[in-house]
Amino acid sequence: xxxxxxAVYILAFAWLFAAQAVRAVDPFADWYTLETQxxxxxxxKPHRQxxxxxxxxxxxxxxxxxxxxxxxxxxKTHLVLSDEADFANGYATPLNINRSVLxxxxxxxxxxxxxxxxxxxxxxxxxxxxxxxxxxxxxxPATFRKVxxxxxxxxxxxxxxxxxxxxxxxxxxxxxxxxxxRGQATLFASLMRMEVERGILPVEQVNLPxxxxxxxxxxxxxxxxxxxxxxxxxxxxxxxxxxxxxSSHLIPFSINAGFxxxxxxxxxxxxxxxxxxxxxHFEHQSDEIRKQGIVEGERITHSAYFxxxxxxxxxxxxxxxxxxxxxxxxxxxxxGETTGLTEVTRADFDVxxxxxxxxxxxxxxxxxxxxxxxxxYDAASEQxxxxxxxxxxxxxxxxxxxxxxxxxxxxAGRYSLVELDTQAGLRRLIQAFDAQVIVGxxxxxxxxxxxxxALWKPGKGWxxxxYDFASxxxxxxxxxxxxxxxxxxxPDGKSILYSAESGHAYNLFRYDLHGGVxxxxxxxxxxxxxxxxxxxxxxxxxxxxxxxxxxxxxxxVWPVASADADEHNAGSAVAVRQHPQVDTEVAxxxxxxxxxxRWWFPLLALxxxxxxxxxxxxGNDALGVHNYVASAAALTMEESEDLFPMGQLSYSFSxxxxxxxxxxxxxxxxxxxxxxxxxxxxxxxxxxxxxDTRVLSASAWLLGVSRQRNADTALFxxxxxLAAIEDNLxxxxxxxxxxxxxxxxxxxxxxxxxxxxxxxxxxxSGDFDGQVLTASWREYIPLGGEHVLALRALQGKGRGLSxxxxxxxxxxxxxxxxxxxxxxGALFGRREYALRGYAEGLPQLRGQNARLISAExxxxxxxxxxxxxxxxxxxxxxxxxxxxxxGAAYDGNSPDRYYRSAGLEFNADLNxxxxxxxxxxxxxxxxxDEAIGxxxxxxxxxxxx
Length: 945
Description:
Layout: H1 7-18, E1 31-35, E2 39-44, H2 48-69, E3 77-82, E4 90-93, E5 99-103, H3 119-135, H4 139-148, H5 162-173, H6 186-198, H7 203-206, H8 218-234, H9 238-246, H10 255-263, H11 267-291, E6 298-299, E7 305-306, E8 310-313, E9 316-321, E10 329-334, E11 337-343, E12 347-351, E13 357-365, E14 369-378, E15 383-386, E16 393-398, E17 404-411, E18 414-421, E19 426-432, E20 438-444, E21 450-457, E22 461-468, E23 473-476, E24 484-489, E25 495-502, E26 505-512, E27 518-520, E28 527-533, E29 537-544, E30 547-554, E31 561-563, H12 565-568, E32 585-588, H13 592-595, E33 601-606, E34 610-620, E35 626-637, E36 640-653, E37 657-669, E38 675-693, E39 698-715, E40 725-737, E41 751-760, E42 771-784, E43 787-799, E44 805-807, E45 832-833, E46 846-847, E47 849-868, E48 873-890, E49 899-912, E50 916-927, E51 935-941
Parallel strand pairs: 2-3, 3-5, 7-30, 44-45
Antiparallel strand pairs: 1-2, 1-32, 4-5, 6-30, 8-9, 9-10, 10-11, 12-13, 13-14, 14-15, 16-17, 17-18, 18-19, 20-21, 21-22, 22-23, 24-25, 25-26, 26-27, 27-31, 28-29, 29-30, 33-34, 34-35, 35-36, 36-37, 37-38, 38-39, 39-40, 40-41, 41-42, 42-43, 43-47, 44-46, 47-48, 48-49, 49-50, 50-51
Helix pairs in contact: 2-3, 3-5, 5-8, 6-11, 8-11, 9-10
């Protein structure tokens, strides 16, 4: 049998935790490193000033947070400044090295992150809490780390549900007195108020990365309020007690034990008290809103989830529908008829009087960057056309009487307003804003003379400003601590509609340009955002207990309240913290220091014939560009005093190049069961990729070289030597994938996956000198709801002396590359394909050529989203599939016969360790051939195709 050893499972298990953490930035940027007392800050050359600012903030944050969490990392933390996306984000990981990637783009609208006095400080605070929390270890884990280094089992706090991890970082990012952080944000209060009205979710659901509303926000939402609850109910030191307690747990996922020790009860008991605290806190808010009188629009869409934004032009309404079950779409409602116009990604849009839609949406730029570009949906041709390439135009509006556009361009947190022609060519620069000014939503007046914009300024916060083209000056319309967002002129140009905080929710306001009066128009229980009006109706995106939808109010709605300037402008933003200068050193980026192995783990495998002993490790550099996995072991047996080496070494450079070498050992016996042979299998593989990645599709050309040699290593008991076998291949492949799986779907349910592979064994010397061509096509067709028709066609052609194709079996092995529903699997050298209902290894299903056709009707079962604390296992949903397939393996020009089968599968989408998705299949298949077919039941981990 093959002697892979325990290394495969250790590395695969570690990979399951690390897969989401080690993501590369642009490897071809001009990277530098700035070093401070506690940090390495890696930045692209144009962002030197940003790196200096981050250095001051990071050292200040360290001084504040390290005592709170009672932890000082032994090595410096790596901060990577990424300007590769036009949206706000960041992530952190303690694996291999303490590392955090900070996206330089600030938030521009209301999404939970809008309340800060310095965006970078808020971001660094949140991510550095992760670093300190996840790196912290005491007791047995600390001892274990001293021996084995940064092995994944030495990070006890990483083995917690995401709401405990993200909740802690969100709790410490929050400062209620300064009005910053999501723990005191109006939007988060509205979201939790809606949760309380709907029914607080059980901890068995919040533990999981569930996809129903509020989906990914739940870990931050429930998490931050849970820590607020601990602070208020269990005492100020309860948060630190819980962190300290779990930091000493060597056994992963022992959450209940940590809760009992720190809080005196298990998770369910504490969660029950937490629910009572939430109801008391937020039912009071709801009562206050209702006492003031609910003024809410009529809900006119029911797709929920993340529907929005909305625009209205005359009697025609436009909005983006994102229902979680299909790609977001731009929708048009006219004369009571709703039409889907085009698919979009992360999008904002505007509509002119002709019905042409100007769209700003995300697309991949130069492979590693996700930037906003402008697109035009032409009403006459009903076609979507791209206007800009890597333009970073995060929002755009039509001028009403000019043949041009007003666009907001972004570059590393710096904004400029520019005028473009209708093909996105630059006409002029209107305003280049100071480095720390953030530009939110904006609009152009109907006469094209004014611009209204929501601007964030240091020490001021979010306010509305009016720009006059004639005077080229900005005038402040508000001056207070409230967040003002999404301004839009009314069609007559006399007023400005916008959304702003009011009490416990975001509500709609009107500003009279002539009278200078702000009037509140709504009083909603959830929230009102992204307003648009045609003079008769005011449309807006409203928050409710199931997500967001389009609502409308009469334009002449009676005001809820009218505030004079003094009332409206009461209070002012707090001063921004000043961070002292720090000593720094700058040098060109060197990946080697962070590539040094930081952990090792012993490998041990015992059988009656042999002992395998070794070690394994893995690592990556700070940018996530260079990645490697290594294991080395030795095999010893009674039959020999020699040690036989084995192991593997794999290296990858970003997504462009990979090389690996492995040696496996296999033991063989003679017909009497006596051990007589040890053979080694050496494999060297190199892959070069030329990817072309898009948001909605990805393709790549791949060149692969594989050299594999199987030969005797040692002979025992008078065994006769066997000849060595070499299987060498030169391969070229093209791979395309536009298939998609949405948050609320049961499988891939749209698009296709194509694979074309050409392999030549004669280009390299070996025992197989034939050529093989393989073509594979998989199509996913939505049938409505969550139903999917999945089709697969495969054709393999070999000539010369090539290895045979083999059909049969049901892919029942546990394969780590398929646990995450990974697409593709092995690309070069693949000859084995499942044909359900038939056993593996049958001679009738072996040949130089192969053909396979499959069809599946996949149908939904039930969305469950429940789990248990320990062992950490959850079931997200179950679904089923009826399938039929036919296949043949043959040596001639065409198959003499096809072997057909049909069956039924039940699929369970499980979740392991609170974060790893796994699909389990239970199936029964019947092969219709009387000679070799039969009824076969099987269980498998991984998708069928």
